[in-house]
Structure to design on (337 residues):
């Protein structure tokens, strides 16, 4: 790989939006729209892990599915490996599936319960016409070993495995064809904490071994922190802060990031801060998001004059970006404070 190639983002989203039309009303004019992803722009560089964190319903899964084109994009642009893939049809996108894969929270849902694990892992090779039968068997055994299982496990059915083992199988299936990009959507949320760490370690090892690039989605900041180089914080469909993971966690600039961080189960952090930041009220309905700054209804710092404007995500000189009229730390990005 040349330096020039290395410096180009593997994935670039520009003002990417996903709007769902709710089917609740029979009258099309009365149907409500959910702006699940609202003009998100981000870049993922080869070899890095971008964590995406935010509360349930903020649009993380929708963004993940758009980034891998498992679902259509309503507006904006998506480039993968230098190619515009925004409007590719399902047929056109199929060959790219080898290069961009997803791992989900519930691996059992994507593993056909009636088929043996060996068959499930052989499927990607068959679909893409790769390898003779004996070669595929060898590759399946190797895959199982690589994710910490045994080759004999190929003969078993998914229900014979624990939650952590099922996720190992899900990861093996996603990595079978050596993709460039893996989007993991809450891959450890359903697992016990001790198993979570094992799966995160496995993902980190595989990233190094295969030179993978990850988008790692989770509602749990502590989980995202363990594996991400950079992190993007989402609120009501928009990215409100993005930057180096350690810096975002140690000195959050968006009031919402600070609330998320202080909810982390770290006794040391809480002991130092008896007055923890509180988020006021409930997450507004995505059917009728507040005008102006989407966080102003819950923000301890918002003042009326700033409610009417939606703050843009502006990058400061140190590379961190925040969409806030009242950032908490560091250079002010908009000059409005
Ligand atoms: N297929 C769909 N049709 C209509 N609305 C949808 C659809 N999928 C998601 N939504 C809505 O879009 C918004 C974002 O949902 P999404 O699942 O992307 O968020 P999330 O942050 O991943 O939440 P969770 O962690 O609970 O899955 C929510 O209001 C959700 O109800």
């Amino acid at each position: 790989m040349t330096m020039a190639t290395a410096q180009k983002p593997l994935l670039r989203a520009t003002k990417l939006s996903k709007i769902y039309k709710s089917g609740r009303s029979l009258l099309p004019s009365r149907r409500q729209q959910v702006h699940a992803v609202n003009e998100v722009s981000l870049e993922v560089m080869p070899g890095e892990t971008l964590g995406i964190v935010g509360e349930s319903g903020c649009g993380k899964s929708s963004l993940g599915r758009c980034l891998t084109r498992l679902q259509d994009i309503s507006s904006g642009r998506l480039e993968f490996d230098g190619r515009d893939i925004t409007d590719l049809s399902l047929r056109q996108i199929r060959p790219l599936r080898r290069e961009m894969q997803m791992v989900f929270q519930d691996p059992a849902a994507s593993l056909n319960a009636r088929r043996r694990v060996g068959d499930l892992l052989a499927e990607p090779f068959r679909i893409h016409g790769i390898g003779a039968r004996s070669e595929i068997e060898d590759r399946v055994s190797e895959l199982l070993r690589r994710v910490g299982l045994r080759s004999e496990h190929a003969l078993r059915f998914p229900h014979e495995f624990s939650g952590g083992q099922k996720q190992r199988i899900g990861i093996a299936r996603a990595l079978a064809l050596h993709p460039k990009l893996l989007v993991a959507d809450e891959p450890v949320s359903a697992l016990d904490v001790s198993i979570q760490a094992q799966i995160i370690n496995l993902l980190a090892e595989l990233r190094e071994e295969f030179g993978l690039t990850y988008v790692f989605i989770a509602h749990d900041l502590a989980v995202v922190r363990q594996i991400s180089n950079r992190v993007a914080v989402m609120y009501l469909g928009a990215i409100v802060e993005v930057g180096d993971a350690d810096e975002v966690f140690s000195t959050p600039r968006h009031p919402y990031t600070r609330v998320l961080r202080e909810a982390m189960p770290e006794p040391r952090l809480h002991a130092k801060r008896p007055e923890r930041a509180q988020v006021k009220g409930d997450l507004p309905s995505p059917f009728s998001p507040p005008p102006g700054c989407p966080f102003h209804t819950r923000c301890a710092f918002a003042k009326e004059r700033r409610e009417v404007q939606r703050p843009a995500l502006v990058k400061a000189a140190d590379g961190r970006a925040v969409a806030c009229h009242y950032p908490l730390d560091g250079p002010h990005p908009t000059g409005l404070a």
